[in-house]
């Protein structure tokens, strides 16, 4: 599979990233054995980057992954591990959390990373992202946490998730960032026009896309008018390239000049195989805009 550099100084990730959010109790409820099997299937496809967050599975999915890779240093060398922190969920696994909130304090970031490393049974993260921007965040304090974790060799690179263009500007002034992981798809097009992707181009970083399939809305058994328009516009393009709708959506997304990296949360290896095949599809500009027009419901201005 293709590999991609996230920034001039950043890491090299697989062109498709495997998102683990639904692997555990929030979805497929994989066993440790099944998790190990799925990891190996991803690696066989060339999907070597795995996207975590400390909160996934109510703080249990990182441990599931770690138990599946326990004691296999050779396996760790083949993969890149990304995790996110900053959201505090209310759950029996964190009884001291009174309400759902955000915490981007230095102490919380360092504590979260230490716990992630313990659960993942690894000495380092390839990348750590701040999961969501907090109204109470201090860039300088976050920079101090990042610097300490980097100097200790516990995190190699840093990024953010769900940040606006102005927030990315604010942070990148003092913190070298490699990515902004955002929701973007044919049905979530705001980043194309609100400056979010423009800012990634300006900063020379590659964005990661969560929910690249728009949460499955385009595959609904009860489609709305927008979905029907997209399906109609997609049909001749699918026929031309002999591809499925999900492959077309992937090809549409990665056409963008920022080289968007889609994060696929599927627990079915067939979906990841299809996504890999979609990397070879190069849509024409008119095909790309025909899908945009269908999603918007009108031609471009």
Question: Could you characterize the architecture of this molecule?
Answer:
The chain is of the alpha/beta class. It contains 13 helices and twelve strands. The chain has an eight-stranded parallel β-barrel with strand order 3-4-5-8-9-10-11-12. A two-stranded antiparallel sheet has the order 1-2. The radius of gyration is 19 Å and the shape is globular. The mean pLDDT is 96.
Q: How is this fold's topology laid out?
A:
Blueprint: E1 3-5, E2 12-14, E3 17-19, H1 32-45, E4 49-51, H2 56-59, H3 61-69, H4 73-77, E5 80-85, E6 87-88, E7 101-102, H5 106-120, E8 127-130, H6 139-151, E9 158-161, H7 165-172, E10 180-183, H8 190-193, H9 196-203, E11 208-210, H10 225-241, H11 245-254, E12 261-264, H12 269-278, H13 285-296
Parallel strand pairs: 3-4, 3-12, 4-5, 5-8, 8-9, 9-10, 10-11, 11-12
Antiparallel strand pairs: 1-2, 6-7
Helix pairs in contact: 1-3, 1-12, 3-5, 5-6, 7-9, 10-13, 11-12
């Amino acid at each position: 599979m293709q590999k991609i550099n996230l920034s001039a100084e950043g890491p090299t990730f697989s062109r498709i990233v495997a998102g683990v959010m639904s692997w555990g109790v929030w979805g497929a409820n994989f066993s440790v054995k099944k998790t190990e099997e799925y990891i190996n299937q991803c690696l066989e496809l060339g999907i070597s980057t795995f996207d975590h967050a400390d909160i996934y599975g109510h703080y249990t999915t990182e441990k599931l992954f770690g138990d599946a890779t326990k004691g296999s240093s050779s396996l760790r060398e083949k993969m890149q591990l990304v995790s996110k922190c900053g959201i505090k969920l209310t759950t029996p696994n964190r009884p001291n959390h009174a309400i759902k909130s955000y915490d981007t304090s230095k102490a919380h970031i360092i504590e979260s990373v230490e716990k992630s490393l313990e659960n993942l049974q690894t000495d380092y993260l390839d990348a750590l992202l701040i999961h969501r921007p907090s109204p109470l965040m201090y860039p300088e304090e976050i920079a101090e946490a990042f610097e300490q974790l980097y100097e200790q060799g516990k995190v190699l690179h840093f990024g953010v998730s769900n940040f606006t263009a102005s927030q990315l500007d604010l942070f990148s002034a003092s913190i070298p960032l490699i990515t902004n992981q955002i929701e973007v798809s044919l049905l979530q097009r705001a980043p194309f026009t609100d400056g979010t992707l423009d800012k990634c181009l300006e900063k020379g970083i590659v964005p990661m896309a969560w929910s690249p399939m728009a949460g499955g809305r385009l595959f609904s058994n009860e489609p709305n008018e927008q979905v029907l328009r997209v399906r109609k516009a997609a049909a001749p393009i699918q026929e031309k390239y002999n591809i499925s709708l999900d492959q077309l959506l992937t090809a549409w997304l990665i056409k963008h000049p920022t080289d968007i990296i889609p994060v696929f949360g599927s627990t079915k290896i067939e979906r990841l195989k299809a996504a890999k095949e979609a990397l070879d599809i190069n849509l024409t500009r008119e095909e790309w805009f025909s899908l945009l027009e269908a999603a918007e419901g009108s031609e471009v201005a």
